[in-house]
């Protein structure tokens, strides 16, 4: 079922986290935050909305890192019901795509709850003070990728945040598969 998260609540502080990657290496928000901001993405392997843009996510994440934006992806899905989202599969997906950012596993789902993540993908863009400035979509893609020349909404918003500390006031919410919560 497709889910649309709420609009950006400007200024909300980024919840701290301490999560492992599939190899057990732990990462915290403070370690990953860039000098010009932070992008926290809730994604997973199986979601068609994520798969439609995953190559673009990697492209734009690398470009944002060059602008001093820290980037992290987090998967919080219940891997008992969705084994394709398990850490070993996350590791393979990150390697296949050449992720330039950590792909972390939120086994307890506490971090997803702290962020109020609703769907995959769900994007949270923070300024250098780790205040929320963007909670919008990646681009015009849905279950299939938008045209190759589609406006890069997430990239443009994060570049603006890196430059000014403020996100755009007009944002279109992301849409995707619901987070697969444990029963």
Automatic annotation (TrEMBL):
GO terms for molecular function: antioxidant activity; oxidoreductase activity. InterPro entries: AhpC/TSA, PRX-like1, Thioredoxin-like_sf, Thioredoxin_domain. It comes from the Bacteria. Gene3D superfamilies: Glutaredoxin. Pfam families: AhpC-TSA. Residues 8-159 form the Thioredoxin domain. PANTHER family: OS07G0260300 PROTEIN (PTHR43640), THIOREDOXIN-DEPENDENT PEROXIREDOXIN (PTHR43640:SF1). This is Redoxin domain-containing protein. It comes from Paracoccus aestuariivivens.
